[in-house]
Here is the input.
Amino acid sequence: MLDSAQLIANLQAALTPFDFWLRLVSTAGYSGGYLLICIALYWSGFITLAARLACTLLASTLIFGGCRQIFDSSRPYYDHPELFNYWKEHRWGMPSGHSQNAVVFWGGSLPGIPSKLFKLLAVFFIALIALSRLYLGVHYPGQVIAGLIVGSCIVIISWRFEATFIHWLLHKRTTLQLLVLFFLSSTPCLITATGHELLGIGSGSGTPYPYQKLSFYSGLLFGASLAILIASTRTVVTRLSPSWKLISTRTLPGLLIAMMIWQFRFEPQENNEPFLIIYLVSWLQGIGISLWAGLIWPLCHYLLLGQKHQQIDQELAE
Here is the structure.
């Protein structure tokens, strides 16, 4: 029976003709790429689908980000340098974040797109991304399988409890709503810090600020949840109905701005800064980016062009 390293070596030899495509799909499979798709859907009017995908993807990213600081599971090319396929990743690889997020994104899309062809494409892309991680030598099969399982659990929980949770949350006072969203978005980061710092589990991320990215994604999730909650009562501003006008005037310009903001997001430059300040700034920046995507840019678009679109639509209707 082949061991994991030999299996990866065989895949690398067999899949070399598809090298470009496997690298391309892995490049697109990072959390940032999926989030750009989510905000493009949101700005184009597919708010329910985009909201579900964005929140589950951010929760998934927090979960596998925390797991990698708890589980000291090395990557194949660390243990077997001959498996290095010119692709570097951070320290630990349990579970495979690419595989996990692929299941969360494509699986979470199924309720909104009940097409048999789409289901086949979803399975194909999930398998292709998982295969690309093995080919690149950055994950063992067990890490990929763990990512697929965790991603499936996130999708099932979302399917099962999403409607019930939203209905419960919308009938609570604003203060309690904020507390619930803050608690849920901060829990993965708090569990990771408690397990590592207080219980001594895992060796951490090996960086001076091990929870900086977790703080950032916690802020993104809290900000996204808050923006969606507010937008649900401001349909005129957010323009929930899909329209080609939104794609041309709001989505494309917004994506250009979003990519620039993402590239210039805060990263600590020195190792002697107070860690609480670093984490707070990262968290606040995450909130700001989500609020900009979910509320500020749609509001700006509405004030500049949305009212004009409404007037034209009314004239055509008459």
The CA atoms of residues 100 and 150 lie 6 Å apart. Residues 311-318 have pLDDT under 50 and may be disordered. The longest helix spans residues 275-317.
